[in-house]
Amino acid sequence: MKLHEYEAKELFSKYGVKIPPGRVATTPEEVRKIAEEIGGPVVLKAQVVVAGRGKAGGIKVAKTPEEAYELATKMFGMNIKGLVVKKIYVTKYVEVDREMYLSLIIDRATRRYLFLASPIGGVDIEEIAKTQPEKIKRVYVDPSVGLRDYHVRSIVLWLGFKPETAQWRQTSSIVQAMYNIMVDYDAELVESNPLAVTKEGDVIPLDARVIVDDNALYKHPELEKALEEDPRDVTEFEMYAKKIGFHYVELDGDIGIIGNGAGLTMSTMDLVYHFGGRPANFLDIGGGASRDVVKEALKVLLRHPRVKVIFINIFGGITRADEVAAGVEAALAEEGGTNKKIVVRMKGTNEELGRQMLAKLGIPLYESAEEAAQKAVELARA
Amino acid sequence: MKLHEYEAKELFSKYGVKIPPGRVATTPEEVRKIAEEIGGPVVLKAQVVVAGRGKAGGIKVAKTPEEAYELATKMFGMNIKGLVVKKIYVTKYVEVDREMYLSLIIDRATRRYLFLASPIGGVDIEEIAKTQPEKIKRVYVDPSVGLRDYHVRSIVLWLGFKPETAQWRQTSSIVQAMYNIMVDYDAELVESNPLAVTKEGDVIPLDARVIVDDNALYKHPELEKALEEDPRDVTEFEMYAKKIGFHYVELDGDIGIIGNGAGLTMSTMDLVYHFGGRPANFLDIGGGASRDVVKEALKVLLRHPRVKVIFINIFGGITRADEVAAGVEAALAEEGGTNKKIVVRMKGTNEELGRQMLAKLGIPLYESAEEAAQKAVELARA
Amino acid sequence: MTVLVGPNTKVVVQGITGREGSFHTQRMLEYGTKVVAGVTPGKGGTTVHGVPVYDTVEEAVRRHGANASVIFVPARFAANAVLEAVDAGVELVVVITEHIPVHETLRAVNYARSRGVTVIGPNCPGLVAPPVRTKLGIMPNNIYQTPGKIAVVSRSGTLTYEISYQLVRTGFGINIAIGVGGDPVVGLDLAEAALRVAQDPDVEGIVVIGEVGGDAEERLAKMYAEGAINKPMAAYVAGRTAPPGKRMGHAGAIVMLGSGDAKSKIEAFRAVGIPVADTPFEVPQLMARQLKR
Amino acid sequence: MTVLVGPNTKVVVQGITGREGSFHTQRMLEYGTKVVAGVTPGKGGTTVHGVPVYDTVEEAVRRHGANASVIFVPARFAANAVLEAVDAGVELVVVITEHIPVHETLRAVNYARSRGVTVIGPNCPGLVAPPVRTKLGIMPNNIYQTPGKIAVVSRSGTLTYEISYQLVRTGFGINIAIGVGGDPVVGLDLAEAALRVAQDPDVEGIVVIGEVGGDAEERLAKMYAEGAINKPMAAYVAGRTAPPGKRMGHAGAIVMLGSGDAKSKIEAFRAVGIPVADTPFEVPQLMARQLKR
């Protein structure tokens, strides 16, 4: 779950980090009101969980509440990288002396927490890694040991602060807060970019990002609730599929993909692409493939407006082809038929029976995924 | 720091463990009052931090408040294994169905926490280890992992409870509480012996012992305060020496021992014993041996009524014998002389100068600890 | 004998009384695996498919000399199950369970490693070794009937079966197939698994099945370039069409902070001379070509 | 070369700017130890006896290739100092500091062990190796001027110097003397230290100095009986007159829950054929007798 900036900042604040005053708004009127309350120039920040909103026009400075209102009317409803702006975070405009980068992730290779720190910030870490890799400091924290004074010391020194100054202490407490958020909230990423030194000399997170492990959301019911109320980058189909228990990712093609297992489903997408087609989605029904599971998955794609062809690729050791065929049959029955084309590739038992059942529905059953993929691409072109 | 039973029980209670109602008293009147409040038969338990109080008459059952008063008048002031009873813990008398043993320590060899559990309790673990070692279950808990459900499950099963019964849950929470006390209070030992199943079917710690790591006392100011108000098994001399920064242990002989370093001081005691003498104490002044340190240490023993002979054994690489001699001189000057005999063994530099200085005070300086020890024993016999 | 399991591998199934645990216990027994005990707290004293059930792993180890564990317990209890297995003294733990919070996996896996215990998974199909008829996992038995010299190490489940099937169909035999798991943090990652199987003298070729997310493929390529792995290899990487920032079914299959895309992995393999198949069905040909060289 | 230190041992002193740290840095330098850097947070950029001081151990390691550390920092910060040294990548950490809470030691030492780092101490005099003129600790230099074939492993400080002095005086030379520390939990305990020095081909005999508390002596005796340690040994155990339940100066020197008394240790040694001296001064004779056999 990707937290909005305002939610992330609230977490930082909860952990004792000073943040610029601000509140989230859902209407231009609210934006104006908050701007009035804050006083002076404010920043309007579109709350969409993608990187690079600034360049896309999602961050604007307003000198007056009226200007804030005007800007907000344009910003609400704006589409930023596929996401519609429904919330704007209005915060006090802060003059900045310098911008730094600080993030905390889980490093797969060492199986430790990893801080990435750079005295240069405000640009993507990918960018810094390309242009000035020597500016990035990596500080590993073993989970069994936890964050200790020397980790913090190492990071804060690297960011350019002198020991025992006020900025040193402020930055140290931000490092500690980020670590605590990481652990307490089962986060995968805690980032502040830029982490800024203001003209007044304060060290504050000017932006904040937190991504929480979906598998741990059950420990944080307030986040579960927030996600339900505001699904962020999750599409309607993704939400629906998730409820049923599938993994679903929206893509932009016209060939709907159903596979069993993540790797197999990805390779099915790749195969379609390989033969010149464009996958519309990723839909992984999991390792097995019972009649009901196939039925529910197929129903998702039958309803999908962009999908022209549906390609079902099932590899099952003990899965029965007639079960899969029955699932297809049931889905079509429940949806009252379809004008979409369906191609099934299936490796399992009872293939002949399955083939006969599908043939009655005008659906070809392939044993070879390559042939099936080619057929799907061909049908999509027709 | 050894906690009194009532302090340990209060900790257990703080961690959610049900304990028999009770309070601590310092006068027979108080005992009577508490007995009245509790109602019914009560147990009077002498609060002395030694094992085996029961056999020594430190635990009595009183049927009425009047009997409690009578028993208390006898119990207060009683000397149990060298400790005077100043506090009595008055608790409700509980009828017991069976007694178990449960303790938690740090296992040096594996560097883990170690639970010792036995379905037989109420006797010393040493006793159980001798007579029925197969009854003792050892459950190791790695500090980096902490107490987990499977540790608890393993212990509670061993103690003889059926999964998911009320007793299972009660015992589980006692195990958890003991572990939390161990960690939160930097304990070296958390013990409940007996841990009892009452006639009513409750599982309760009938006795409780907690020993806190002295090195971590600074983290627990309330315990530091309690120790200051009630030094328990620490003698006046031990307290005084500790304040100065020495390690001191009271023994029962007449030859006072001063050494530098724990091992050397122990070996000095052993040497005195080896030659037929009886050490009065263990006084370790630490690795070095400056004039002031020697002076302060000597003053402690000069004031000790039981000490007839003082044997100072210093092994110093770069320690100067004249410094040690000067320390002895200064101590005698400050105390206005002594009629105790002093023997000094010293290995360091400037031995000849030191010898001359001590000779003026009538004190022999030896290079050989064996000779010195023999001399000390000889003087004590004289 | 293979690198991870052998004729003396005695398995305890944690969560044996659950639906998945019970079902796959039967499949493992059918395959030939020595499943000696099961564990479900509170169910001690019962049996599942003739396998005795205990309340603790320690008891299963003590009574039956179990030295490996397969874990089917629900996600919320699975990390503890790993720790329990480690403390009970088994040498190999296979975690089938999906959806374990990654912070919990981190601690459990690190603890196991510090104690010298190999963990496969979580969120994995396990491992299967046809030469010793031993399976600790959920792979379909019928695909792994042909013992041989090829090791398959994979971040996938069904795609592993698919490619194993293609290998067997074209005449190869399997020494071992290991699904290392689809989570971001796993006990033995793809690179380490490849390194491990490469040390088996019975293994002649290694098939690697990677996917988007992380840098295990890149590290594997580096090991190969440095000579730490010196067996013929062929690779396939799933997810060329996976968009950045999205999880592709596996918690670990995500392109994040600009790293982990399929292109980088495919280039890393090819740069060090490991051929990468464009489709799963090309893998056997590539392997055959590699072995002929 | 000795088992723990050699000519390539480069030392960083943590807490170098403190009184003890500074004093013993000079002594270590005088002895010949390669002290390449010091660390005191906030004091980076200064020098102590010509040794450059840094804010972090990592910097000291990066700039000077330090591979061992000696810790003099106050007890409240010492456990973190150990962890810092381990994370910075040194191979050997000697902790002089006394009074570290035992729960903190437990975690620091376990972490170091899981990373393959040897910790000596806490609450120890360190180690000194005359053949390589290297000292990481506080032993008096003048006693360790005679290189030779005897290893001394000890739970004591001054008693180690005393017995080392007696050994040298009677014609022995010292290969290494290790004070493992007087705390209940130490990084390398007496038994492990003996096992380690026994593996040094240059060591001909091992002197063990034990004391009351714990069971390291008993475990050592067992290792000797089992042949894991196969060098001539002589022992001394301090504390025959120590009363139970009382700490004898060292936090670890306590007879508790009925175990750890000197009698048990002496009997354990003698039972397996390790002679035990009645006084420290008999140790050289016993060693001489053992070596003649």
From TrEMBL, chains A, B:
<feature type="binding site">
    <location>
        <begin position="317"/>
        <end position="319"/>
    </location>
    <ligand>
        <name>substrate</name>
    </ligand>
</feature>
<keyword id="KW-0479">Metal-binding</keyword>
<dbReference type="GO" id="GO:0000287">
    <property type="term" value="F:magnesium ion binding"/>
</dbReference>
<dbReference type="GO" id="GO:0006104">
    <property type="term" value="P:succinyl-CoA metabolic process"/>
</dbReference>
<dbReference type="InterPro" id="IPR005811">
    <property type="entry name" value="SUCC_ACL_C"/>
</dbReference>
<feature type="binding site">
    <location>
        <position position="94"/>
    </location>
    <ligand>
        <name>ATP</name>
    </ligand>
</feature>
<feature type="binding site">
    <location>
        <position position="99"/>
    </location>
    <ligand>
        <name>ATP</name>
    </ligand>
</feature>
<feature type="binding site">
    <location>
        <position position="260"/>
    </location>
    <ligand>
        <name>substrate</name>
    </ligand>
</feature>
<feature type="domain" description="ATP-grasp">
    <location>
        <begin position="9"/>
        <end position="245"/>
    </location>
</feature>
<feature type="binding site">
    <location>
        <begin position="52"/>
        <end position="54"/>
    </location>
    <ligand>
        <name>ATP</name>
    </ligand>
</feature>
<dbReference type="GO" id="GO:0005524">
    <property type="term" value="F:ATP binding"/>
</dbReference>
<keyword id="KW-0547">Nucleotide-binding</keyword>
<dbReference type="InterPro" id="IPR013650">
    <property type="entry name" value="ATP-grasp_succ-CoA_synth-type"/>
</dbReference>
<keyword id="KW-0067">ATP-binding</keyword>
<dbReference type="InterPro" id="IPR016102">
    <property type="entry name" value="Succinyl-CoA_synth-like"/>
</dbReference>
<dbReference type="Pfam" id="PF00549">
    <property type="entry name" value="Ligase_CoA"/>
</dbReference>
<dbReference type="GO" id="GO:0006099">
    <property type="term" value="P:tricarboxylic acid cycle"/>
</dbReference>
<dbReference type="Pfam" id="PF08442">
    <property type="entry name" value="ATP-grasp_2"/>
</dbReference>
<dbReference type="GO" id="GO:0004775">
    <property type="term" value="F:succinate-CoA ligase (ADP-forming) activity"/>
</dbReference>
<feature type="binding site">
    <location>
        <position position="45"/>
    </location>
    <ligand>
        <name>ATP</name>
    </ligand>
</feature>
<keyword id="KW-0460">Magnesium</keyword>
<keyword id="KW-0816">Tricarboxylic acid cycle</keyword>
Automatic annotation (TrEMBL), chains C, D:
<feature type="domain" description="CoA-binding">
    <location>
        <begin position="4"/>
        <end position="100"/>
    </location>
</feature>
<comment type="function">
    <text>Succinyl-CoA synthetase functions in the citric acid cycle (TCA), coupling the hydrolysis of succinyl-CoA to the synthesis of either ATP or GTP and thus represents the only step of substrate-level phosphorylation in the TCA. The alpha subunit of the enzyme binds the substrates coenzyme A and phosphate, while succinate binding and nucleotide specificity is provided by the beta subunit.</text>
</comment>
<feature type="binding site">
    <location>
        <begin position="96"/>
        <end position="98"/>
    </location>
    <ligand>
        <name>CoA</name>
    </ligand>
</feature>
<comment type="subunit">
    <text>Heterotetramer of two alpha and two beta subunits.</text>
</comment>
<dbReference type="InterPro" id="IPR017440">
    <property type="entry name" value="Cit_synth/succinyl-CoA_lig_AS"/>
</dbReference>
<dbReference type="GO" id="GO:0006099">
    <property type="term" value="P:tricarboxylic acid cycle"/>
</dbReference>
<dbReference type="Pfam" id="PF00549">
    <property type="entry name" value="Ligase_CoA"/>
</dbReference>
<dbReference type="InterPro" id="IPR003781">
    <property type="entry name" value="CoA-bd"/>
</dbReference>
<keyword id="KW-0436">Ligase</keyword>
<dbReference type="GO" id="GO:0004775">
    <property type="term" value="F:succinate-CoA ligase (ADP-forming) activity"/>
</dbReference>
<dbReference type="GO" id="GO:0009361">
    <property type="term" value="C:succinate-CoA ligase complex (ADP-forming)"/>
</dbReference>
<keyword id="KW-0816">Tricarboxylic acid cycle</keyword>
<dbReference type="InterPro" id="IPR033847">
    <property type="entry name" value="Citrt_syn/SCS-alpha_CS"/>
</dbReference>
<comment type="pathway">
    <text>Carbohydrate metabolism; tricarboxylic acid cycle; succinate from succinyl-CoA (ligase route): step 1/1.</text>
</comment>
<dbReference type="InterPro" id="IPR036291">
    <property type="entry name" value="NAD(P)-bd_dom_sf"/>
</dbReference>
<dbReference type="GO" id="GO:0004776">
    <property type="term" value="F:succinate-CoA ligase (GDP-forming) activity"/>
</dbReference>
<comment type="similarity">
    <text>Belongs to the succinate/malate CoA ligase alpha subunit family.</text>
</comment>
<dbReference type="Pfam" id="PF02629">
    <property type="entry name" value="CoA_binding"/>
</dbReference>
<feature type="binding site">
    <location>
        <begin position="17"/>
        <end position="20"/>
    </location>
    <ligand>
        <name>CoA</name>
    </ligand>
</feature>
<feature type="binding site">
    <location>
        <position position="161"/>
    </location>
    <ligand>
        <name>substrate</name>
    </ligand>
</feature>
<protein>
    <recommendedName>
        <fullName>Succinate--CoA ligase [ADP-forming] subunit alpha</fullName>
        <ecNumber>6.2.1.5</ecNumber>
    </recommendedName>
</protein>
<dbReference type="InterPro" id="IPR016102">
    <property type="entry name" value="Succinyl-CoA_synth-like"/>
</dbReference>
